[in-house]
């Protein structure tokens, strides 16, 4: 289970190194979530998830407020949620989630990022079935036993609780994201090392050495696209 956390942690570290890009993507995601329902996180579950995630990336309040104000205002800018699936070398699989106001532009850019770096687009459903949608909540200052106890007391069912790099990581169904966080908050925990809704592969592959650089370049090219919010893959670089 530690491998999963390490991959998520590396992904987060990569995002932390590109803060302006990350903040812009969160601004769009917050706007879209707020437009879908009430611009109040207490009345809009999807918005609350995005805001909790934004906290772990230290997204400035000004950016959050700007996105919420835009959603409350007269803006009629519409975004479409898209998922692309594709393949890289040696059985590697990639999922790309995007928010876009120009479907043709995004599709063309994602396809180019795949094809120019040794990958290829797959049909809808060709990859996603090999990944599990998962809520990942991480905290420090607690032991595994303490976390299990507080989850039991809160009557929250989760998939697993593990200790990794001085953090305790909870893996749960996405529907349990808020329940897990609320259980921690009732126990006095207000800061989270990680609070993500992610796609975790059921199996991992290791790339041959000669394919690693091109695969990393493909993932970077996908993540650099303005409309792409998340990129998931099943490559384990640590084996």
TrEMBL record:
Main subcellular location: cytoplasm
Keyword presence, Acyltransferase: no
Sorted UniProt keywords: Cytoplasm, DNA-binding, Transcription, Transcription regulation
Cell compartments where the protein resides: Cytoplasm
Residue stretches making up the TACO1/YebC-like second and third domain: 79-235
Domain of life of the source: Bacteria
GO cellular component: cytosol
Domain TACO1/YebC-like N-terminal: start-end pairs: 3-73
Protein's UniProt keywords contain 4Fe-4S: no
GO MF annotation, one: DNA binding
GO biological process: regulation of DNA-templated transcription
Family the entry assigns: Belongs to the TACO1 family. YeeN subfamily.
Designated name of the protein: Probable transcriptional regulatory protein H7B90_29690
Organism: Cohnella xylanilytica
UniProt lineage: Bacteria, Bacillati, Bacillota, Bacilli, Bacillales
């Amino acid at each position: 289970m530690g491998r999963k956390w390490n991959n998520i942690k590396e992904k987060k570290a990569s995002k932390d190194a590109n803060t302006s890009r990350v903040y812009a993507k969160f601004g769009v995601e917050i706007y879209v979530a707020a437009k879908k329902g009430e611009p109040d996180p207490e009345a809009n579950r999807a918005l609350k998830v995005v805001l909790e995630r934004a906290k772990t990336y230290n997204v400035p309040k000004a950016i959050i407020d700007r996105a919420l104000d835009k959603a409350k205002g007269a803006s009629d800018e519409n975004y479409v949620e898209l998922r692309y699936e594709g393949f890289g070398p040696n059985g590697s699989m990639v999922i790309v989630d995007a928010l876009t106001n120009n479907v043709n532009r995004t599709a063309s850019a994602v396809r180019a990022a795949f094809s120019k770096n040794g990958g290829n687009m797959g049909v809808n459903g060709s990859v996603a079935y090999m990944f599990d949608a998962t809520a990942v909540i991480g905290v420090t200052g607690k032991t595994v036993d303490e976390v299990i106890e507080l989850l039991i007391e809160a009557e929250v069912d989760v998939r697993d609780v593990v200790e990794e790099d001085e953090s305790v990581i909870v893996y749960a169904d996405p529907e349990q994201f808020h329940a897990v966080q609320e259980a921690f908050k009732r126990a006095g925990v207000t800061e989270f090392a990680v609070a993500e809704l992610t796609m975790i592969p059921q199996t991992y592959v290791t790339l041959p050495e000669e394919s690693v650089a091109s695969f990393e370049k493909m993932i970077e090219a996908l993540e650099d696209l303005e409309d792409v919010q998340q990129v998931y893959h099943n490559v384990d670089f640590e084996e």
